[in-house]
TrEMBL record:
Chief localization: cytoplasm
Protein name (record): Ribosomal RNA-processing protein 43
Keywords: Cytoplasm, Exosome, Nucleus, RNA-binding, rRNA processing
Subcellular locations according to the entry: Cytoplasm; Nucleus, Nucleolus
Family, similarity comment: Belongs to the RNase PH family.
Source taxon at top rank: Eukaryota
Span of domain Exoribonuclease phosphorolytic: 31-162, 200-253
Short name of one Pfam family: RNase_PH_C
Organism this protein belongs to: Stylosanthes scabra
SUPFAM superfamilies, A to Z: Ribonuclease PH domain 2-like, Ribosomal protein S5 domain 2-like
Length: 284
């Protein structure tokens, strides 16, 4: 990214950033999570960070587990950027950022250990759950990874694993409340259940220049800054990942330390918002 001093100065004045330091962009009231946004999905969530909007949906299918992991299920993550999300995404042409974000999401969720894939096992060596997690970008206005990760995590926390049983032919079938033969079938999951989430990852994107740090950058701000850093921490404060797509080499360790400190604050904030969203769903 090329640094344009005139554009940065305009952003600095707009954000009221003092020349002697940094001032994070306050967006506490602009962080929103709505669990259960897609009624037909097994788990879903709609998330907004500023104007950036993400919708995540999870569908569960029964599969045969691999020979290497006979007692584990699978989680497949895909990120989508339809033309509606940004004028730079054209119909018929896949967005360049989509596969990159898909890999970042998969790596971060896998590295965090948020879920135990053994929880997705049904019958060892015979049946397990395949969870398809699709994240759709509805509005791309900066900090895409932060919103995508939050949306994915919120959908996983809302996920209800369907109740299933084994029929007389040894096949796994869904159990419905009005299934007259339910009692004659061997239950595998007797009732719907939630996943046990362990260390939940959250992230924060910072844009840097000299002694300036801005968080929650918009797409315009990302385009004129020379360095973008995204840090992911789990709820225990452990570093999960650090992404720096291009830009100059960071020689100032204190800048990264400041970004980590800001991320710790954001993790506490997002954890509270996610818990509130989940408790609201339970009441409803």
């Amino acid at each position: 990214m090329s640094f344009k001093s005139g554009q940065f100065e305009a952003i600095r004045k707009k954000k009221q950033i003092p020349e002697c330091g940094f001032k994070p962009t306050p967006k506490k009231t602009r962080l929103k999570i709505r669990s259960g946004a897609v009624a037909s999905a097994n788990g879903s969530a709609l998330v907004k960070i500023g104007s950036t909007t993400m919708l995540s949906a999870i569908k569960m299918e029964v599969m045969t587990p691999s020979l290497e992991s006979p007692d584990e299920g699978c989680l497949a993550i895909d990120f989508h950027m339809p033309p509606i999300c940004s004028p730079i995404v054209r119909p018929g042409r896949p967005a360049e950022a989509a596969p990159v974000l898909s890999k970042q999401l998969s790596d971060t969720i896998s590295s965090s250990g948020i879920i135990d894939l053994k929880e997705l096992s049904l019958v060892t060596g015979k049946a397990a759950w395949m969870a398809y997690l699709d994240v759709y970008c509805l509005d791309a206005d900066g900090a895409l990874f932060d919103a995508a990760l939050l949306s994915a995590v919120a959908a996983l926390s809302h996920l209800q694993i369907p109740a299933v049983s084994m029929n007389d032919d040894g096949k796994i079938v869904l159990m419905s409340d009005d299934d007259g033969q339910k009692q004659a079938q061997e239950p595998v999951n007797k009732e719907k259940r939630n996943l046990t989430l362990r260390s939940i990852p959250f992230s924060l994107t910072c844009i840097l220049h000299k002694n300036y740090i801005l968080v929650d950058p918009t797409a315009e701000e990302e385009s004129v800054m020379e360095t973008v850093v995204t840090i992911a921490l789990d709820t225990s404060g452990q570093l999960v990942s650090l992404y720096k797509p291009g830009g100059p080499v960071l020689a100032f360790t204190p800048s990264i330390q400041d970004c980590v400190a800001l991320t710790r604050q954001r993790v506490k904030e997002l954890k509270g918002i996610l818990e509130e969203a989940n408790s609201t769903m339970q009441v409803e």
